[in-house]
Design brief:
Helicase, Ruva Protein, domain 3, 16% strand, 3-stranded antiparallel beta sheet, Tetrahydropterin Synthase, Chain A, alpha+beta, two-stranded antiparallel sheet, globular
Length: 202
């Protein structure tokens, strides 16, 4: 029989405060984790992110426009991040997310928010380059499509904001940051658009 650690209503309350989860969710997580608070928190976080995925079709019409100007005054960013309610967009955590995304954009120079924002002509150019590289590689023809598509996918990952590794923590993407807050607040959060300005560049 599996050993479990006893937990009390106080533990459930503490987990609720830390995670923002409901009482029954917190209780079930503690039961599943055998009373281990840290493990229960991880379970709630994983489930919350899964729920955030299902939330993505809900309308996010509130939000904030955030900005970042690099200390040398040569790079600036404006970014619009939307939430479902003005209550969430007014929280410190939401404001911090917007600031962090703006800072990331200044540093990582994404071309678009997601794949849909990359012009088709840009992708075709990358595909042609990949095809040329493959032709010169001497690799078997049977590998062509897999290798070419892999290079195109890599281009998307490097140049779309939601797929880029977060500049402060390369174990997370910007998409992960958005999902984490969405899971915590229980609302759909969307990065709508951004503009990055660099002195001397069109």
């Amino acid at each position: 029989m599996a050993t479990t650690t006893a937990f009390t209503a106080k533990h459930v309350q503490e987990l609720r405060q830390k995670s923002g989860a409901g009482m029954m969710d917190a209780k079930r997580a503690l039961e599943e984790a055998g009373g281990d608070m840290e493990k229960a928190g991880e379970l709630l976080r994983a489930k919350g992110i899964a729920k955030a995925e299902k939330r993505s079709d809900r309308t996010a019409s509130e939000g904030r426009v955030g900005s970042y100007i690099h200390h040398n005054g040569k790079v600036g960013v404006l970014v619009e991040v939307n939430s479902e309610t003005d209550f969430v967009s007014g929280t410190d955590e939401f404001k911090e997310l917007v600031r962090e995304i703006a800072l990331h954009i200044a540093s990582a120079s994404p071309l678009a928010v997601d794949r849909d924002g990359i012009p088709a002509a840009e992708i075709e150019r990358e595909r042609r380059i990949a095809e040329q590289q493959f032709a010169e590689s001497g690799k078997p023809e049977s590998l062509r499509e897999k290798i070419v598509q892999g290079k195109v996918d890599s281009f998307y990952k490097q140049h779309t904001l939601m797929s880029q590794e977060y500049v402060r923590d390369n174990k997370k993407t910007i998409g992960d940051l958005v999902k984490e807050l969405s899971a915590k607040v229980g609302e759909n959060i969307v990065v709508k658009r951004f503009a990055r300005f660099q002195l001397g560049q069109e």
